[in-house]
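Each field is listed here:
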Amino acid sequence: MRQPLIHIFGGTSDARQICVMMDVARIDYGLSVATPTGAQQAMGVRGEIVTGRMEVEEMTEYLRKRGTKMVIDASHPYAERLSQNIVNACQKLGIPLIRYIRPSDIDAIEHPLIYKVATIKQACEIATSLATRILLTTGSKQLADYVAHLTGKTVLARVLPTAEVLALCESCGLSVDQIFALKGPFSANFNRAFYQFCQAEVVITKESGEQGGFREKVEPCLSLGLPCIVLCRPGQQFTGEGITQANGLEEMSQLLANFGT
């Protein structure tokens, strides 16, 4: 079987949409996801799905053996280490890289109840000064860091309903009353009801953009009078020789159209 010449990294909803674009354009590709959950989210796409995290040496060897001619980084906007590994591997091999940038809504909403921060520590310092019951809608990857900075507070975590994630929540000391295992996307109405149900006094979230339901998470906070702390995206955009940025799915579609011609 012929190996695909394009390899995509990313378990996000954006990555899946890019795969669908490539399916429609009949472009062969492979897709790397970090976890079995990412593989489940990608089910139905035509490309080969590879599950498991790779460090830069393993990634470089994998791409070399496969004869990869182009890489698309459609990983999560906060996956800095993965993106840097992808850049390093591509530059070692001289492979062109398309870095997909999820459009941001961070500048579209300004309000006194919205606090924009650059680090987890800053988010937790503000939350600690504002409230006791703190809801995290930031995922599970850095849950331990939040819990460590929120000592003495009631931390509520909305996370994916997988055994691995639930075990992580328990290892961080969260009880069944503090864990809300749910899978999005969530509407603004659902979030409003959810915030009320869990009696959140402040919400910490990420600048996740339209695909991540950013407005749907923030707007209910404003309507309920809840402070909303937003962890902004890392500033580094991984630019350099051989790297092309695609800002949003429309630009990505145009790049793929050019590839097919």
Notes: The chain has a mean pLDDT of 90. The CA atoms of residues 5 and 69 lie 5 Å apart. Residues 80-93 form the longest helix (14 residues).
